[in-house]
Design goal:
alpha+beta; 4-stranded antiparallel β-sheet; cell membrane; membrane; single chain; MetI-like; transmembrane transporter activity; MetI-like fold; 6 strands; MetI-like_sf; about 325 residues; OB fold (Dihydrolipoamide Acetyltransferase, E2P)
């Protein structure tokens, strides 16, 4: 008996080691195969150009807008102030730093460069990544609120709330997200902004129509997740809470929802990861999220291989971070 007990774990260990090694070998084989395939194509990899799509230093020229003479050059802190006069009018030009191309008394013409300075700027990929994260966080927040309210309405005894929730869920889940985005931007957005313009108010940026479309789309799925989570809790929990004198709302808030929250975390994480990836559709409404930014970068650089690989890795980093955060919440709620 003792020999069997000591041999079986060793066999299990050997079996796991073999399968792990097989996985590593298969992964290396796939990578090598892909590398070999790329060598068979007439393509030059330019990974050294990728960093500028995250951050780059741009040289900005300060040009004159009139013809005249440089009458004065003074220092104002770290900046240089150049005054150009044509005898009747004068213009002031501020050049950060001291990189000037003119001297006092020199004649300049319209469009001449007085000086230049450098400025750090975000690249397309970094800008697109930040917009994707911003849109996703806001959409997730409102999606949770909409889904929680709709999920509770879905199991409500109030016919109006219940039928409204069912209609909303079936309508949103039964139509493609891309179609909903088009309706939000080209139909509802146009109508709403026209009404705001006629009222003398500001227009709503397209970013918020994108957030609305994603939040309402996610809210329908979150509602079903919430409903399933609540209904998975035994009815005796509610009955016991009511027998202790709690109202239905208090029992739902303090007894049912905390237990349901632990069960719905994994499906919620999956839904929100899908929402992050679905944000790539917002490019159709001129929102420069990560996918649209990558598409623009590919158009100007002609580096499709490198840029689309980087785009995929960035999405993976965002979704993996969310997945790790949800796992952390699961552990915390399990310990509570």
């Amino acid at each position: 008996m003792n020999e069997t007990a000591t041999v079986e774990p060793k066999k299990e260990f050997d079996r796991n080691t073999i399968w792990t090694a097989a996985y590593v070998v298969a992964l290396i084989a796939v990578c090598l195969g892909f590398y070999w395939a790329t060598t068979q194509t007439d393509y030059i990899w330019r990974w050294n150009r990728i960093p500028k799509y995250f951050y780059y230093v741009d040289t900005i020229n300060v040009n004159t807008e009139m013809e005249g003479e440089v009458t004065s050059i003074t220092k104002k802190g770290k900046d240089s102030v150049v005054i150009v006069s044509d005898g009747t009018d004068s213009e002031y030009y501020t050049v950060p730093g001291s990189n000037l191309n003119v001297s006092q008394g020199e004649t300049v013409f319209m469009g001449d460069t007085i000086g230049s300075y450098t400025e750090g700027k975000m690249g397309l990929l970094l800008e697109g990544t930040l917009i994707t994260i911003e849109v996703s966080i806001i959409s997730i927040f409102f999606g949770i609120l909409i889904g929680l309210f709709t999920g509770l309405s879905r199991i409500s005894s109030n016919p109006f709330l219940k039928m409204s929730a069912i209609t909303y869920i079936e309508l949103i889940r039964g139509t493609p997200l891309l179609v909903q985005i088009m309706i939000w931007y080209f139909v509802l957005g146009t109508i709403l902004n026209n009404l705001l313009i006629k009222a003398g108010l500001f227009q709503i940026p397209e970013l918020w129509f994108g957030v609305a479309s994603l939040a309402i789309f996610a809210g329908a799925y979150v509602a079903e997740i919430v409903r399933a989570g609540i209904q998975s809790i035994h009815k005796g929990q509610m009955e016991a809470a009511r027998s202790l004198g709690m109202t239905k709302v208090t029992a739902m808030r303090k007894i049912i929802l905390p237990q349901a929250f632990k069960r719905i975390l994994p499906p919620l994480a999956g839904q929100f990861i899908s929402l992050i990836k679905d944000s790539s559709l917002l490019g159709v409404m001129a929102i420069r999220e990560l996918t649209k930014a990558t598409r623009e970068a590919v158009t100007t650089s002609l580096m499709p291989y490198e840029l689309w690989f980087v785009c995929g890795v960035l999405y993976l980093v965002i979704t993996f971070t969310l997945s790790m955060f949800v796992q952390y919440l699961e552990k915390r709620t399990a310990e509570a």
